[in-house]
């Protein structure tokens, strides 16, 4: 792992150095991993403190996306396209661990699981490739998780695969600011809830007025009829975002996000800050 | 046949990851005096188009990556690294700061090499190691790839350390934080940003076109 004072830990050097190593791997056991046991203890503590009032979201990395950290992005793409038998074996290993880890968090008190799967996004693999690979992995994995799941694309696009996503069994999808939130809402209404899609990186420089405008635009685009959870679009708000901005977002949610909504569907989308290259 | 037809044929072969068809399109134009020309006429515009298509959400990163890698291999075959037919350029280097997510760097490296440039690949480095290598190698154009915001912010420290060392390379940055906050590159002291690998090539080409001769190799 790589640790830094000004952000969350990051993945260190990949542990799978050659694809052949995949043949000898076995899925780790949650109970044998002190850091995972610690997460479960924290989840139990949160559940004891929050009871049924506060939802607790457990997190797993999708079996289809975690190889970016296990073996590096380039070797993983090469594996995907050039060694389908080892790719398939790695998926089965990762699925076994992912299911075990998700269910352990649910058993410890997590209300739902967020299944991070950026590689399935159309930003990373083509929709056709997703249907042959990431979709199959998600369908098998989510079917064995004993609770509600949000499938999150970590700021990657999902519009081109939207019609495939209900088949995964996900109740919620985490969507990108690169996709049109109102169009996503129109196509998912009644099928899946949306989670998103504020720009957490740009948020660092928002004024309170900009924060309110962004929140209002997101609620106008996706809040009508329910089925919308306001969030950032990546699953991580940087440490550098000022607390005042977070408070301004919270105030804006209370002002504009209380049902029945006092906000028009036609409300113009908030524009991103200017593009200095243009 | 119109001028754009070979580009379309080459582009479609790349997106279909069809090495044979892509190679066949290039092979028509490999006479010694036309080797760099074919790179300019076919490879560079095709990779630029693929970069644009990715930015518009019409192709995937895996297609961009495979296209760059295929082009790099093909251009290496017709223009080996030491070939005098490659672009006349000053020392360039590329690095990933504080991160083992290397794909963005790999794509820029491939697309630059496929466009006839040579550059040193520093791999994953921390700020201190990056500064010492840039000073040691007399780097004139430095490309830095990052994935996470803290690494992007650390570029400012790299720039300040280079300034203290009396070294003023042109710094071109890329990676997710710069795509999601298009003001960020200025804040960290970079000279430019590129949203795609092909855009990176365009920035480098424009820079080199205006660079005084004494900076060239």
Automatic annotation (TrEMBL), chain A:
GO molecular function, one term: uroporphyrinogen decarboxylase activity
Pfam families the record matches: URO-D
UniProt domain Uroporphyrinogen decarboxylase (URO-D): residue ranges: 4-256
InterPro entries, per database record: Methanogen_methyltrans, UROD/MetE-like_sf, Uroporphyrinogen_deCOase
GO BP term, pick one: porphyrin-containing compound biosynthetic process
Domain of life the protein comes from: Bacteria
Designated name of the protein: Uroporphyrinogen decarboxylase
Source organism per UniProt: Thiocapsa roseopersicina
UniProtKB/TrEMBL annotation, chain B:
Segments forming domain B12-binding: 88-217
Gene Ontology CC terms, in alphabetical order: cytosol
InterPro entries hit by this protein: Cbl-bd_cap (IPR003759), Cobalamin-bd (IPR006158), Cobalamin-bd_sf (IPR036724), Met_Synthase/Corrinoid (IPR050554), Meth_synthase_dom (IPR036594)
GO process annotations (BP): homocysteine metabolic process; tetrahydrofolate metabolic process
UniProt key word Transport: no
Record-linked SUPFAM superfamilies: Cobalamin (vitamin B12)-binding domain, Methionine synthase domain
Domain B12-binding N-terminal, residue spans: 1-90
Transmembrane segments: none
Gene Ontology MF terms: cobalamin binding; metal ion binding; methionine synthase activity
Keywords: Cobalt, Metal-binding
Name of the protein this chain belongs to: Methanogenic corrinoid protein MtbC1
Species in which this protein is naturally found: Thiocapsa roseopersicina
Lineage: Bacteria, Pseudomonadati, Pseudomonadota, Gammaproteobacteria, Chromatiales
């Amino acid at each position: 792992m790589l640790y830094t004072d000004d952000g969350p830990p990051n993945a260190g050097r990949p542990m799978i150095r050659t694809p052949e190593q995949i043949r000898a791997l076995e899925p780790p056991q949650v109970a044998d991993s002190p850091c995972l046991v610690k997460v479960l203890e924290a989840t139990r503590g949160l559940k004891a403190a929050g009871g049924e009032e506060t939802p607790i979201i457990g997190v797993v990395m999708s079996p289809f996306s975690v190889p970016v950290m296990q073996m590096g992005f380039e070797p993983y793409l090469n594996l995907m396209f050039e060694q389908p038998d080892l790719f398939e074996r790695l998926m089965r290993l990762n699925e076994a661990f992912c299911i075990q880890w998700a269910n352990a968090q649910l058993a410890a008190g997590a209300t739902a699981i967020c299944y991070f799967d950026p590689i399935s996004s159309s930003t990373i693999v083509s929709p056709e490739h997703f249907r042959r690979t990431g979709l199959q992995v998600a369908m098998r994995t989510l079917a064995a998780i004993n609770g509600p799941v949000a499938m999150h694309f970590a700021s990657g696009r999902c519009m081109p695969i939207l019609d495939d996503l209900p088949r995964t069994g996900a109740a919620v999808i985490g969507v990108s600011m690169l996709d049109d939130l109102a169009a996503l809402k129109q196509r998912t209404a009644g099928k899946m809830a949306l989670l998103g899609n504020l720009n957490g990186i740009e948020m660092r420089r928002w004024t309170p007025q900009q924060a309110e405008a962004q929140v209002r635009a997101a609620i106008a685009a996706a809040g009508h009829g329910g089925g919308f959870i306001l969030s950032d679009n990546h699953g991580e708000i940087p440490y550098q975002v000022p607390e005042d901005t977070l408070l301004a977002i919270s105030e804006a949610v209370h002002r504009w996000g209380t049902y029945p909504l006092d906000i028009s569907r036609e409300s113009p989308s908030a524009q991103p800050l200017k593009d200095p290259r243009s | 046949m119109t001028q754009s037809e070979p580009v379309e044929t080459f582009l479609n072969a790349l997106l279909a990851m069809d090495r044979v068809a892509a190679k066949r399109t290039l092979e028509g134009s490999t006479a010694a005096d036309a080797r760099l020309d074919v790179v300019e006429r076919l490879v560079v515009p095709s990779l630029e188009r693929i970069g644009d298509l990715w930015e518009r959400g019409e192709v995937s990163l895996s297609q961009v990556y495979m296209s760059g890698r295929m082009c790099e291999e093909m251009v290496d075959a017709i223009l080996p690294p030491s070939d005098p037919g490659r672009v006349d350029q000053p020392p360039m280097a590329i690095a990933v700061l504080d991160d083992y997510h290397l794909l963005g760097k790999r794509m820029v490296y491939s697309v630059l090499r496929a466009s006839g440039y040579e550059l040193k690949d520093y791999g994953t480095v921390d700020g201190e190691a990056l500064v010492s290598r840039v000073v040691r190698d007399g780097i004139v154009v430095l490309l830095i790839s990052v994935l996470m915001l803290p690494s992007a912010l650390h570029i400012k420290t790299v720039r300040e350390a280079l300034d203290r060392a009396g070294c003023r390379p042109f710094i071109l940055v890329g990676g997710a934080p710069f795509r999601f906050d298009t003001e960020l590159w200025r804040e960290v002291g970079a000279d430019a940003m590129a949203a795609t690998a092909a855009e990176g090539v365009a920035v480098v080409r424009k820079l080199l076109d205006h660079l005084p001769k004494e900076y060239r190799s």
